[in-house]
Amino acid sequence: MDRAVEPVSAWWVTEYRQPHQGTVELRLGSAPLEEALHGFSFIEFYGEWPTVLRYLHYTLSSNTDARLIYVQLFGGINPYTLTHSDTTLIVRCFDHNTLLEALNRVGQDEQAGYTLLVANPYLHAKTPRQQTEITAHLRSIAQERRVITFNQETKTHTPKGGYFHASSVHILIHLETQRRRGRGVRRGIGGWDTLYATLTKHPAKPSNTHYTLHLDKNPHHNNPKTPTLLNWFQLTRVE
Q1: Quick one: DSSP state of residue 134?
Q2: Are 30 and 196 spatial neighbours (Cβ–Cβ below 8 Å)?
Q3: Which of 47, 71, 74, 125 could be stapled to 120 by a disulfide with Cβ–Cβ 3.0 to 4.6 Å?
């Protein structure tokens, strides 16, 4: 098949695979944050889901050689904001079992170099055991390649997945569109294109380190001549 978006049970398209050239650098909207995260293989961005989802769009549109496992019920990925190359491949998972299947496929994939992005991994995890299963897979994969999760936060503003997950991630970064200064809350300058990131866990740096993320739009953003996610869909002929 020659599609970058596959059915749930299928996997990455062989034709799009590139030779291993080492782990590529990430573009995250902040050079100091990119430097702080350099060399770590299990990273998580979390917060209110609309904010995290917007940052996921930016990450997909700004980085090459990435694979996304997107756990969802309906919608969420806006194809008109995904405008870059065919090295970004996407698999959607609609329940807990298909997520585990996708993570197993990554664990068996011999190609190195690409970054695995996992969006909303605990959406369908109903029990602590299911949370543990997901975290165990992510921990194992992070031993071989870089893993970045984009996670929802709980009502207490902690990442979903429980304590085992939070303690397993090398670095946790809380995303928000507002910054608390003194007793008041001041909305970030730059509107939707500016986010604030708080490093809440790091083995080498003090916690609560703050970064301002300027999410420059892709230069081909919404350019109708540039391939988008819609161009990756092709009808499947049923024999």
Answers
A1: H
A2: no
A3: 71
What is the Cα–Cα distance from 196 to 216, expressed in whole angstroms?
14
In Å, what is the CA distance from 75 to each residue of 79, 97, 192, 218, 221? 10, 20, 20, 22, 20
pTM: 0.78
Instruction: Please report, to the nearest 10 degrees, the dihedral formed by the alpha carbons of residues 34, 40, 42, 46 taken in order.
Output: -30
| Beta-bridge partner residues of 199 | 173, 209
Residues 6 or more apart whose Cβ sits within 8 Å of residue 231 = none
Output the six-digit token pair for 31. 């050079």
pLDDT digit string (tens) for 46-83? 999 989 988 998 888 787 778 889 898 776 777 666 65
C-alpha to C-alpha distances, 117 to 2, 60, 66, 127, 225, nearest whole angstrom: 21, 9, 7, 23, 27
Tell me the pLDDT tens digit for each residue of 33-50.
998 888 889 999 999 998
Q: How confident is the model at residue 173 (pLDDT cuts 50, 70, 90)?
A: very high
- The tokens of 85 are what? 């190359």
